[in-house]
Amino acid sequence: MAKKEFTSVQIFIILIGICVVSSAVLAWVYNVTKNPIAEVEAKKKQDALRSVLPAGTEKIEVRQFKYKGKDVEIQVGFDKNGAITGYAFESETDKGYGGTILFLIGVNAIGEINAFVADQKETPGLGSNITSEKFGSQFKGKGLHNFRFKVMKDGGDVQAITAATISSRAACDAFQKGLEMFEEFKKSHK
Amino acid sequence: MKLLNELFKGLWKEHPTFRIVLGMCPTLAITNRAINSFGMGVSVIFVLVGSNIVISMLRTITPDKIRIPIFIVVISTFVTVTDLTVHAVAPGVHTALGIFLPLIVVNCIIIGRAEAFAQKNTVLASALDGIGMGIGFTWGLVIIGTIREILGSGTWFGMQVFAKDAPTAIMMILPAGGFITLGVVLAVMNKIESLKTEKKS
Amino acid sequence: MLPYVILIINAMLVQNMVFYWILGICPYLGVSRKIDTAVGMGLAVIFVLTMSAMAAFVVQRLLLDPLHLEYLQTLSFILVIAALVQLVEMILKKYSQPLYRALGIYLPLITTNCAVLGVAILNIRKGHNALQALFYSLGASGGFALALFIFAGIRERIALSDIPRSFKGFSISLITAGIMSMAFLGFAGLAK
Smallest CA–CA separation between C25 and chain B, in Å? Predict the structure, then answer.
């Protein structure tokens, strides 16, 4: 099959034409998937919040708070009678083995840790176990007033993960920073 | 029948990963879990078949000088469609595949088939070529994913295979494990091929 | 100054393109047979990757973000890369024959080097500003060149050794790469 010879004008038109059609297709697919994707992301966030807030939480409201010059969101959980079950907030540490770790920490009404989830890229099987039951369970019911958030090696109360001291230390850093911020929040929202 | 040959060649004889050695990056990167391998495989099948069909349809009006940019535009359109669809329909897979979903656009298998086949063949043949190559790529990924997941996490598609606290070879789910698994699998494939040719002679 | 040095160390060693992100494997396996071709490809990649990552960055910040066209990222980035590679090839051909003969053949391969598109996307995903993007791109491409160079040295030795027949070629190369990946794990925690 002989190759057709195209003029420059034809080449230009064909290229532009294909780009236009592609962009149109993409714009259409984007519009169709925009809402489902937004819903998926919102559900992810809600599921995470529900998993860290204390049991019995029916409604979640957000409070804005200014801490160290930054705007922070504190999620407040209410039970079906309108009483506060607990709070949830994000805390970030850059001391992780694989970089930044973002924690979502849920505390009860007096600032003791209930549960937490983490967005992390720590070493699978080692540092990534900071989200495991084994490591996490030692934090339940602990707050700044009854626990030292440092690994035992550094004089604290935290049992670090074997061979994953860096990740364990990073978790402590995130908890300490997050709880301190929460203390400030409670003081200004008496 | 010749058309059926186009479909089946990608499954073994001209296997994209094990024989032609293309598409290495995803093969090594996302195969730490079988479900991720499967998700990537299906995404690639969609992009490969789609772009093969469109590129074949456009082959008579594709000037030779700008064929690579045209391939790129077509392929990246399909890739973005896949990315958005997976995000909306299977968010877990989307997060797991991460940056490798948009990177499908530079997967040498897709551009390779466009250049070597789709621009010179009919739409039906190109579609079958895409399906065969895609399925071949997928089963290759799943095999490697299976080996790495079972040895590295003790699970398969998330289901426990070994006892829950049994020690596992963590190395398998790290990048090094990917390299080594693929290297060993390639050696095994080579051995199988050489045994077959010995038997014939 | 220090944060930028840490950025480069991180991009080059701790999160090495080949051994951590697993990007750029096809050229990594394909062009690393001899040290001089590896060096040529490495330099070409540093040059093209950094330029196209910065060009892509500009496109994202000045075009895609303000107009909310983020879904066009894949399409626009790969077009930017392909166009840049074409441009570099044309300029080399016209103004420097020796350089063109040395690097020219690698240039088309760089378009499909997933490390190039990968770094362009990573700059956006990591939220870098322009200066960070520049240093990250330099470090990442440098890391790729480093991996390529070391690997070529090893492969030249392997070519002279007695490898079992089934393992010859890509098989032993991949296993070697795996061992190098393990070695590079030792860099973790360096950039703290």
Answer: 6
pLDDT at residue A125 in the model: 64
Q: Do A25 and B81 touch (CB under 8 A)?
A: yes
Please count the structural domains in chain B: 1
Would you call A26 and C71 a contact, using CB atoms and an 8 Å cutoff? Answer: yes
- Asked whether the beta carbons of residue B84 and residue A29 sit closer than 8 angstroms, the reply is yes
Q: Which residues of A touch B69 (CB under 8 A)?
A: 15
- Indicate yes or no: CB of A22 within 8 angstroms of CB of C188: no
Determine the Cα–Cα distance for residues B83 and A37; give it in Å rounded to an integer.
11
For B22-75, how does the pLDDT look when each residue is reduced to its tens digit (9 = 90+)? 778 888 888 888 888 998 999 999 999 999 999 999 888 888 777 888 888 999
Task: Give me the interface pTM, i.e. the ipTM.
Answer: 0.77
Neighbours of chain A (3+ CB pairs under 8 A): B, C
Is A15 part of the contact surface with chain B (CB cutoff 8 Å)? yes
Helix (H, G, I), strand (E, B) or coil at C29: helix
Q: What is the 3-state secondary structure (H, E, C) of chain B?
A: CHHHHHHHHHHCCCCCCCCCCCCHHHHHHCCCCHHHHHHHHHHHHHHHHHHHHHHHHCHHHCCHHHHHHHHHHHHHHHHHHHHHHHHHHCHHHHHHHHHHCHHHHHCHHHHHHHHHCHHHCCHHHHHHHHHHHHHHHHHHHHHHHHHHHHHHHCEECCEECCCCCCCCCHHHHCHHHHHHHHHHHHHHHHHHHHHHHHHHC
pTM, to two decimals: 0.80
| Chain B contact present for C173, CB below 8 A | yes
- Is B170 domain-assigned? no
In a domain, B80, yes or no: yes
Q: Do C192 and A95 touch (CB under 8 A)?
A: yes
Q: How far is A93 from chain B (nearest CA, A)?
A: 21
Return the structure tokens found at C80.
């930017």
CB atoms within 10 A of CB C161: 7
Owning domain of residue C170: 2-185
Domain membership of residue B116 as a residue range = 2-145
Q: Per the structure, how many domains does chain C have?
A: 1
